[in-house]
User: What shape does this take?
Amino acid sequence: MPVEDPQRPSPPFAGVTAAGVDHVRLQYEYLAARDIDGYLSLLDRDMSVDGPPGSRTCGREAVGALRGRQLAGGSMSCTVSQVVASGSTVAAIGRYRGDALHGRWVEAEFCEVFTLAPSGLLLSQKTFYRGDLPT
Assistant: This one.
């Protein structure tokens, strides 16, 4: 019988991981369609997004407001080429083009790492870029 470590939570059920993968894929569709309400429906109330170094937005409503400001103008397209999931972690790999999220034109490959809440909703997001980054 395995011994549970109180410092390390149990891995989520496969169904939660599968739901999380769907939520990651859907969030790109909602953001591209500028559907903030749809996007918010995928986020845990304690959602956090790591931005530029030293910048973090916490809470579903604050993240929604951030995305609303970012998507107020400009263009955006995200093409996801691969999604990898293990337990409560989902990584999406793809390509971003546009100026909506950063205020100037960006064409870059990205890897976004999401942590899932026990419900399968998105709990955190951290983005890594490779390419022409905004300064």
Remarks:
- Residues 14-32 form the longest helix (19 residues).
